[in-house]
Amino acid sequence: MRTRLAIVMCVASIAASGRALAHHSFAAEFDASKPVKVTGAVTKIEWANPHIWFFLDVKGEDGTVTNWGFEMGSPNQLLRAGWKRDSMKPGDVVAVEASRARDGSNVANAHKVVLTSTGQQLFSGNPGGQ
Asked: Which domain covers residue 113, as residue numbers?
């Protein structure tokens, strides 16, 4: 019986550590010294652990449209920050303040999202952007 319990505990700890190792730090992927502010139409929202992601089509000055991806906190963090699953929907136009990805891609960690239709400000669940 003890051997079986030990095996179950080992398997559980390995499974839990894999989840922790898969999680990244803010500083590993994003640069707080590279703030970005963009406005665009929401194209997709992925409401899942460990982070919520949403995507915007952002129109540049030359008229080209670029899709940006924004990471936010976990679903639980966003719920505590006042978000609901339908707070932001595809087609909504939003303004985002974020920290850009270190690699310069069109990916960022959102700090603040403003629904332009209502002016409602939603915070990302990432205090200080981290």
From this structure: 25-129
